[in-house]
TrEMBL record:
<feature type="transmembrane region" description="Helical">
    <location>
        <begin position="77"/>
        <end position="97"/>
    </location>
</feature>
<dbReference type="InterPro" id="IPR020846">
    <property type="entry name" value="MFS_dom"/>
</dbReference>
<dbReference type="GO" id="GO:0015112">
    <property type="term" value="F:nitrate transmembrane transporter activity"/>
</dbReference>
<feature type="transmembrane region" description="Helical">
    <location>
        <begin position="366"/>
        <end position="388"/>
    </location>
</feature>
<keyword id="KW-0812">Transmembrane</keyword>
<dbReference type="Pfam" id="PF07690">
    <property type="entry name" value="MFS_1"/>
</dbReference>
<feature type="transmembrane region" description="Helical">
    <location>
        <begin position="145"/>
        <end position="167"/>
    </location>
</feature>
<keyword id="KW-0534">Nitrate assimilation</keyword>
<dbReference type="GO" id="GO:0042128">
    <property type="term" value="P:nitrate assimilation"/>
</dbReference>
<feature type="transmembrane region" description="Helical">
    <location>
        <begin position="270"/>
        <end position="296"/>
    </location>
</feature>
<dbReference type="InterPro" id="IPR011701">
    <property type="entry name" value="MFS"/>
</dbReference>
<protein>
    <submittedName>
        <fullName>MFS transporter</fullName>
    </submittedName>
</protein>
<feature type="transmembrane region" description="Helical">
    <location>
        <begin position="308"/>
        <end position="326"/>
    </location>
</feature>
<feature type="domain" description="Major facilitator superfamily (MFS) profile">
    <location>
        <begin position="10"/>
        <end position="422"/>
    </location>
</feature>
<keyword id="KW-0472">Membrane</keyword>
<feature type="transmembrane region" description="Helical">
    <location>
        <begin position="239"/>
        <end position="258"/>
    </location>
</feature>
<dbReference type="GO" id="GO:0016020">
    <property type="term" value="C:membrane"/>
</dbReference>
Length: 443
């Protein structure tokens, strides 16, 4: 049918490219703060807020942008998010060029402002989830979204690993200019290959809702957008949404937070170089957590999101416990790897559960879970910094007690959903048995 464009595979590629480009902003200041900190004379808490600021917009804009995909289409919304990100990076570059003419306080606030704008790209996660979800049937969404989120999540790890080298070869401003060029290039690629789902394309061509849905069904589309405001309200009223928000706050928000925090932990607590810290954070932790999310999506499809989330939060608790006890490089690396495995798999498991518990409100639920859940990336780095400020150097290790607490809460919530799911299955079995018995009597 020539009146529609795109297909599942190309749309998955387009969404993943856009998410990868925007999500790199998680690492916006994680490494460069070590160059900015002495220039602006920042203390550890001020530096932590700078590192976390991209997550302000990255977290909270997920909710409206994800819901708006239902009304405006993912192509338009994702392009808008990438454009705002480009403006943010341009602002950072402009501010760095003007550092000599600005006071420390003025420069700090401008970097916070433009960091927040650049962080809009992080919010592509939820709008992209919604965008991809409408291309895939429910039974394949775990794998598709695992690929989307897993590969897209590699961006902070890759950028964290290469930025130290970019700083050495290009300097602080040159590193951000390279970032800008990459972001513009990826935006162009997305615009060229990214299309909305068949249903929304047909609506834009003037078909009625019924005719567009009928034609889209014939083309293989199974999941359809609904009213944005209605899906958000519906998702808010369901208690399962808030369990998923908390679980995602722990795994994904916690993942973002450690991607930002680990460079400081490695350099100031363990005492290694910035380049080594970039490799341990970007490759060993962030990239591993991102890639294993793909496996998490597959496992969630095969064994169920509830069962996999129970397993993954248990692993996270073990890893966090190791980090509290770790005072040497090998021990700390072990804890980091275990935490990465637990968080990466948990991220996939939670988003397998979103369409399962919110089938009539995918857009609204994705925005709430992704938006409020990822707020952990904003809140946790300053919390970890306060541990150090109050307790001194030992606070670097004791701060991981926060992850044990969050892991235990998320583990309990996973068990609650597991019990809820099995009670529902048992009711269905009773109904089926009763129906079969009644049919036998009738015959």
């Amino acid at each position: 049918m020539t009146e529609v464009k795109g297909n599942r595979q190309v749309s998955l590629v387009a969404g993943t490219i856009a998410f990868f480009a925007g999500f790199a902003a998680v690492a916006l200041y994680g490494i460069t703060v070590h160059k900015i900190e002495p220039i602006l004379h920042l203390n550890i808490v001020e530096a932590a807020w700078l590192v976390a600021i991209p997550l302000v917009t990255g977290a909270f804009l997920r909710i409206p942008f994800s819901a708006l995909v239902d009304t405006w289409g993912g192509r338009r919304i994702i392009f808008l998010q990438l454009t705002i990100s480009i403006i943010g990076v341009l602002g950072i570059i402009s501010t760095l060029y003007k550092l000599k003419s600005l006071s420390d306080l003025e420069a700090y606030w401008l970097l916070l402002l433009f960091g927040a704008l650049a962080g809009t790209g992080i919010s592509i996660f939820s709008s992209g989830i919604t965008y991809v979800s409408y291309w895939y049937p429910e039974k394949k969404q775990g794998t598709a979204l695992g690929i989307y989120a897993g590969l897209g999540n590699t961006a902070p790890g890759i950028f964290t690993a290469i930025i130290p080298y970019a700083l050495l070869s290009l300097g602080l401003i040159g590193a951000y200019e390279g970032w800008l060029a990459f972001l513009v290039a990826m935006t162009i690629v997305f615009v060229l290959i990214g299309y909305d789902n068949y249903y929304q394309q047909l609506l834009k061509r003037g078909y009625s809702q019924e005719e567009a849905k009928s034609r889209a069904l014939a083309l293989g589309q199974e999941v359809f957008p609904t009213n944005a405001k209605a899906t958000l309200k519906y998702a808010i009223r369901k208690w399962q949404t808030w369990l998923l928000v908390t679980m995602y706050f722990t795994s994904f928000g916690g993942f973002e937070a450690l991607t930002e925090w680990f460079p400081t932990y490695w350099t100031k607590y363990i005492g290694i170089s910035l380049i080594e810290a970039g490799i341990l954070t970007g490759i060993v932790y962030s990239l591993l957590a991102a890639l294993i999310r793909v496996l998490g999506g597959f496992l969630s499809d095969k064994f169920g999101g509830e069962r996999i989330s129970i397993m993954s939060y248990t692993i996270l608790i073990v890893g966090s416990s190791i980090m509290i006890l770790a005072h040497s490089l090998p021990f700390a690396i072990t804890g980091e790897i275990v935490m990465a495995i637990g968080m990466g798999i948990a991220n996939a498991a939670v988003y397998k559960l979103v369409p399962k518990y919110e089938p009539d409100a995918v857009g609204g639920a994705s925005g709430l879970v992704g938006g409020l859940g990822s707020a952990g990336g904003l809140i946790l780095p300053p919390v970890l910094a306060y541990f150090v400020l109050i307790l001194g150097k030992i606070g670097y290790s004791l701060g991981f007690s926060v992850y044990i607490a969050l892991g235990l809460i998320s583990l309990i919530f996973s068990v609650v959903l597991w019990n809820k799911y099995h009670k529902f299955k048992d009711k269905i079995k009773v109904i089926e048995a009763t129906t079969q018995s009644s049919n036998k009597k009738l015959t």
